[in-house]
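Exam review. A common question shows you a sequence with its structure tokens and asks you to describe the fold in words. Practice with the pair below. Do the first one on your own.
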Amino acid sequence: MTYFLASILLSLLASLAVMFFAKKFGIIDRPDAGRKRHGRAVPLLGGFAIFVSFWAVVFYSLNFTNLIGQNLPIAKLVGVFVGGLILIILGILDDKYNLSYQWRLIVSAIAILLVIASGVGIDKITNPLGGIWYLDFVRLGNFAVIADTLVFAWIFGMMYTTKILDGLDGLTTGIVAIGALMVYLIASGERWHQSDVALIALIFAGACLGFLILNFYPAKIFLGESGSLFLGFMLGVLAVISGGKFATALLVMAVPILDLIWVIASRLRHGKSIADGDRRHLHFRLVDAGLTQRQAVLLYYLIAIIFGITTIFLQSLGKITVLLALGFLILAVEIYINKQPAKL
């Protein structure tokens, strides 16, 4: 608990410092007539504050205690740190210079490949119908083709889900904090008992919550590109290093993931690029339909908590059943919301 509270405090202090520098160097987000409807210019670079506070507490724990290293080798931690640092640098440059999406995709892929090269990965997953599926039987040198491709796709998908989700004050930060807390609860339980992974998840949740104090509506600072990518990256990595807890992260992130699939399908159906930004996403539509920002965000939090908690009690088949049921529910909500006239 001490490290959790320390990460909250450090993140809050780092966020205040980052706000000052972002304003000083003009790295701010200005409102427009489209997706950006906040009433004033807001400093960016919040992801840097989360990154610094999170790794400061992790490195202290690593060097001055014996709490980290039992289940998580140092090489993997170094890989995650370097990959995250690359994303932070990419995000800062993008917030300042508005890089092309091709550069963002390339650098994001490099960051994930470095993590995989450090040893972060899986060799098997649970078969929902019983037994185990082994994924490391096809290899090219040190590269496990099926397993590492799955990990790459998983982390990449989580990164760009949180990036797209970052449309309302505090939405991405709060959802990812909930996901990290769920990983902590599962990793610290008697069944898995991964104390060092649990501690890292708890420290990361604290860093998110410290930032959320300033990021909740009305936000005084935004995550920026660095934060929206880094948060998804870390949640994806936590799901992998905690023993392939994909179902846990999937259920916490189910609404934004299913919404992203819906929006991509809608854009393709209307002949639009999937990279175009718009207000088709559910969180925007909820606000346009009459909810306040706070109400929409708190609704997302509630759903994430409810379905995240189910992962603690359900087995694999039960988790898939819940995910499918939630998918049909979100589909129904999407259809209903998109038929309503927007209150602009």
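Now try the second one, then compare your answer with the model answer below.
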Amino acid sequence: MYLGHLSRDCRVAGMAASCVSSICCGCAIALTAVIAFGQSFPTKPVRLITAEAGGGADFIARLLAQVLSTDLGYQVLVDNQGGASGVIAAQSVIKAPADGHTLLFYSSNIWILPFFQSNVPYDPVRDFSPVTLVDRAPTVLVVNPALPVTSVQQLIALAKGRPGELNYAAGSTGAPPHLSAELFKSMAAVNIVRINYKGTGPAVTDLIAGQVQLMFATSGAVSGHIKSGRLRALAVTSAQPSPLAPDLPTVAAAGVAGYEAESTHGVLVRAGTPGFIVGKLNQEIVRVLGNRDLQAKLLAAGVEPVGSTPAQFAQVMRADMAKWGKLIKERGIRND
């Protein structure tokens, strides 16, 4: 648009040829500079900001950083900035230069948080540029074996026959186990009461002990207990069968048509980061995610490697915000 205006102005002045020639020369010089700069990226170590040390995001971030450091030619440093539901990490990226040397690796909580918490100091669409979706993982619907159900349909029938009597365990408000359960309640039209826990560990312990009847848990948290028979798995929450639980049907196929709930992690940069840098980061991270050794480690940790274009990741974010924003509003979920 800007070049078009310049050309019209030049024609009015009778200098179209001279103007176009000048513009072309200028564009060529600028393009050469862009290409040269893009080829030299990065020019210093890269910070990969993520959640607290020891968690799932930290584990995945360190796997990525190890391989990326070799591929990029500069060290990728994992910077753990947990707390405040991701706000601290997000603000660190927003305040950093928009040059691609500071990355945010976080869960979908980053773009869902503004729906259930007031005064979030960032806009997930305005303030960030998506780079790539890194992984996804369904939760697993598990019940205490004493509960007389072996399928999703039987669970729904029992819950409808005993409204308000069944309890489900969940940790943080807005985390995948919580939202998966609330989506199930909404779509299956059942009244199951949430029992709040400070973390997944205590929740699973009480589920095994029969203090609560069911839970939507991450695969890594319950797979061992499913194998030992201390918990009974009914279904996975992905839209399609998952390699993380190949013997289980999906909730959608087992009785709640259209149901889908997955946790995801992705890499974002500050908005305004040049497109060629976003493209370079995308290319390198997607290549890393194609590494078979890394894929095996991710699957063993309970997540499926993905890799996407920035546009595909942006679409995932928009779909999440529409879906979960609607549910959060309808059910009055707050985390203030």
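Model answer, second protein: Confidence is low (pLDDT under 50) at residues 1-38. The chain has two domains: 46-136+265-331, 138-236. Full marks require stating both points clearly.
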